[in-house]
Design brief:
The chain has about 450 residues and is of the alpha+beta class. The protein is about 20% helix and about 40% strand. It is found in: Endomembrane system.
């Protein structure tokens, strides 16, 4: 994979890092990119206006980008590269940066920009990718990094709840992360996340029309001596694609069923079929050892009811009621409901039934939508929002419904929609005084949670 440039931009377009490997593309390519990104016009039907795709060509330059933590990580090339390989390489670089600087934020990138440049020097030579593994790069990185004081004061419980294991997770989940260089030398611990990303489509009648769970087991290791881990999953786990070769499937549905499962190349899964156990020797840093898929989640975490009422020719009210279906001892964080508005909307506001618990709304005039934010959504609870919008002309209820589906985003710690979990974790013994700490958690995130209105 060959890059000409790699740069990182803030949400406002400020250049945080800019590395030019081949000097064959104009130095102001970041300005070209950011202007196109902000004012995407839907050219050639590649994406609707305002929704810039991750790959595009502008002024004969190919751009590829990913967005993480309100920052844009961009690579450029003049060659016709494989899009999947480009985005995979960019994501690997993002992971490396996070492993070495800890918290992936604009402030931290600015603070450790010299380390980021050193990483980019080692990752590629003349734009050709050389090495993307944290453990192999670590001996060649000489920039000294210390643990961040603002994070080391957290309690062990806070660090367990707030640990960052990759992906687009909430701000709380990133605050406990520290750099690989500092942590691997001072700590002896391992974090394991079972992350489930939920994609659900509800019909206008509120029934589920399609559901899928994409799960992964992610290890973030700071273990000294790189010992072997022995991991055991649910004994009642059943993989549908191997059901024909196993008589252990319970027709009464008492088993946890997933459609497919795959393991990374460094996982020994010979005992998985009979004992539901695997062994792995994880490298320093973050690695994904298991990916699985299920189209039969045990239940959906949220239900939503919506109603449209026309008050006058230019005034419409939208009532949205959301109910959580998980247990009362669990809470969702960073929950948001996005309500699309008709193109004739000139103003919108919201009445929230529970403003005391930090609920807010944000009317985004340019996107023609209203976002309802719920910082903490307890289980077995219900919240209501009444949206009041004003239109420039007579707008019917059917036009309001055709504005688009209502969508939700959420993250639920210590919760699984499939029941897939880690039952036990044993670390290879390295002596009587070798006692590493270990943290395991389940996380459910919304990947695409959609409620159709018509």
């Amino acid at each position: 994979m060959t890059f000409s440039q790699f740069f990182i931009l803030s949400a406002k377009g400020d250049k945080l890092v800019f590395k030019d490997y081949r000097n064959d593309i104009p130095k102001h390519s970041d300005e070209i990119f950011f202007h196109k990104y902000n004012y995407w016009d839907g050219v050639n039907s590649h994406a609707p206006p305002g929704d810039c795709p991750p790959f595009f060509n502008e002024k004969n330059v190919n751009f590829c980008f990913v967005r993480r933590r309100q920052m844009l990580f961009v690579c450029t090339t003049l060659e016709n590269q494989s899009p999947s390989m480009m985005v995979e390489t960019v994501l690997s670089i993002v992971k490396l940066i996070r492993d070495f600087i800890g918290v992936l934020s604009e402030e931290n990138v600015r603070r450790h920009f010299t380390l980021v440049y050193e990483l980019l020097e080692e990752v590629q030579d003349m734009g050709i990718t050389q090495e993307l593994r944290t453990d192999r790069l670590k001996p060649f990185i000489f920039h000294k990094i210390a643990a961040l004081d603002s994070y080391t004061s957290d309690t062990l419980y806070q660090r367990m709840v707030n640990a960052d294991f990759g992906g687009e997770v909430s701000k709380k989940s990133t605050d406990a992360a520290v750099s690989v260089l500092a942590e691997s030398e001072e700590k002896n611990e391992v974090y394991i996340d079972v992350v489930e990303r939920l994609s659900v489509v509800f019909g206008p009648d509120t029934n589920v029309s399609r559901a899928q769970v994409d799960g992964s087991v992610v290890i973030k290791s700071f273990l000294q001596g790189t010992p072997t881990l022995f991991i055991t999953f649910n004994n009642d786990l059943c993989v549908a694609e191997v059901m024909n070769t196993s008589n252990r499937f319970d027709s009464n549905g008492r088993q946890i069923r997933i459609d497919s499962i795959s393991f990374s190349e460094n996982v020994n899964w010979r005992s998985f079929a009979n004992q539901k156990s695997v062994t792995v020797t994880p490298p320093i840093g973050e690695t994904t050892i298991v990916n699985y898929k299920s189209t039969q989640p045990t239940f959906v975490p949220f239900r939503l009811i919506h109603a449209f009422q026309k008050v006058s020719d230019t005034r419409v009210e939208i009532l949205v009621r959301v109910r959580s279906e998980y247990s009362a001892g669990v809470s969702s964080i960073s929950t948001s409901v996005t309500i699309p508005l008709p193109l004739t909307t000139v103003g919108a506001s919201a009445e929230l039934a529970s403003e005391k618990d930090g609920q807010t709304f944000d009317y985004r005039e340019r996107q023609q939508e209203l976002v309802w934010n719920i910082p903490s959504f307890a289980g077995a609870a219900e919240h209501t929002c009444k949206v009041k919008l004003t239109t420039s002309s007579d707008t019917s209820i059917s036009e309001c419904k055709r504005a688009g589906p209502i969508t939700m985003y959420f993250e639920i710690p210590q919760h699984s929609t499939t029941g897939f979990s880690i039952q036990s974790l044993r670390i290879e013994e390295r002596g009587s005084d070798y006692n590493p700490r270990r943290w395991i958690r389940n996380i459910t995130q919304a990947n695409s949670y959609v409620f159709r209105t018509h």
